[in-house]
Amino acid sequence: MIIELTNTNSSEIADAAMNARRSTGLASGLVMTLIVVSTPQQYTRAFDSAQATAAEHPSRILMVVNSKSTKTAMDAEIRVGEGVAGDIITLRLAGELVGRGDSVVLPLLLPDLPVVAWWPGRGTEFPAQDPIGRMADRRITDATNADDPVGTLVARARGTHSAQDTDLSWTRLTRWRALVASALDQCRRPVTSAIVEAVEDNAPAALMAAWLDVRLGVPVTVNTSMGPGITAVRLVTDAGEVAVRRVKSSDAEYIVPDQPLRTAALIRRPVVDLLSEEFRRLGPDDSYERALNRLGERAG
Questions:
Q1: According to the model, what pLDDT value does residue 69 have?
Q2: Model pLDDT, residue 248
Q3: DSSP letters of the chain?
Q4: Is residue 4 domain-resident?
Q5: What does the pLDDT look like over 127-159, one tens digit per residue?
Q6: Domain Glucose-6-phosphate dehydrogenase assembly protein OpcA C-terminal: where (predicted)?
Q7: Which residues partner with 230 through β-bridges?
Q8: Is 107 found in the same domain as 25?
């Protein structure tokens, strides 16, 4: 069921959503409210990713779309049923409502359930101080979409980061960190230095270097490669080099001294997979916070 509302308000939207859920017999069991803040250009991809996550995490999804129109108005679209796990409410804001989505969204939040805010584009400079960010229990940004990805992370490390914030550039490292730790466990020799190879100005690479710095306490450098993304992590030991390097878009090989070459899956995951991972852990991520803080220190 799809319901269109023109020049509407939050009360009308809430009533229409409730009636739609009743008429379709949609069961309860929603686990959170997901607020997605996007531009019209980002909307389609963000909508598809948010909808896909609902299969694992049934949610009320509030798509807040800020337009450039100067005439103050709000149009809404409500989707219930038709394969939608939960409901999806798109709010198209214009004029004076742009940037004031919190007042519109607040009456539509599900009671007693966590609220997650996601900025699929450049994001906001201060997630925890953003009007929508302040009402969220978890705030998700993606520095890889910023004009200055590494600089954006450094700025957050130096004062705009809050314990409830995370960034998908860190989530992209989950498999890399697991493979590096596994390879190192098989060598068990002291590491004297480390190298991360990646495309220039890569936010995940900067976080990987900071994480290695925290974990190993050795000099870590970032060298530029042709990409895509991170292409290798090399750990220097007195027994030889321990390395994990990408050989295909979906595979990596890791090298351990005195052991045969091995391969492992290293898929470049879509955004929906990254979001689903974050939704499984809505609490603070101490490892990310330590890596982010070290990144700020490394930047000087």
A1: 79
A2: 84
A3: -EEEESS--HHHHHHHHHHHHHHHT------EEEEEEE-TTTHHHHHHHHHHHTTTS-EEEEEEEE----S-EEEEEEEEETTEEEEEEEEEEEGGGTT-HHHHHGGGSPTTS-EEEE--SS--S-GGGSTTGGG-SEEEE-GGGSSSHHHHHHHIIIII--TTEEEHHHHTTHHHHHHHHHHHHTT---EEEEEEEESTT-HHHHHHHHHHHHHH-S-EEEEE-S-SSEEEEEEEETTEEEEEEE-SSSEEEEE-TTS--EEEE-----HHHHHHHHHT--S--HHHHHHHHHHHHHT-
A4: yes
A5: 999 999 999 999 999 999 999 999 999 999 988
A6: 164-292
A7: 198
A8: yes
Give the whole-angstrom CA distance, residue 183 versus residue 179: 6
289 falls within a domain = no
Given the structure tokens 């992590």, which residue do they identify?
Answer: 233
Residues 99 and 229 both lie in one domain = no
User: Do 233 and 267 meet the contact criterion of CB atoms below 8 Å apart?
Assistant: no
User: Which structure tokens are listed for 128?
Assistant: 């925890």
What's this model's pTM, rounded to 2 decimal places?
0.93
Q: Are strands 32-38 and 59-66 parallel, antiparallel or unpaired?
A: parallel
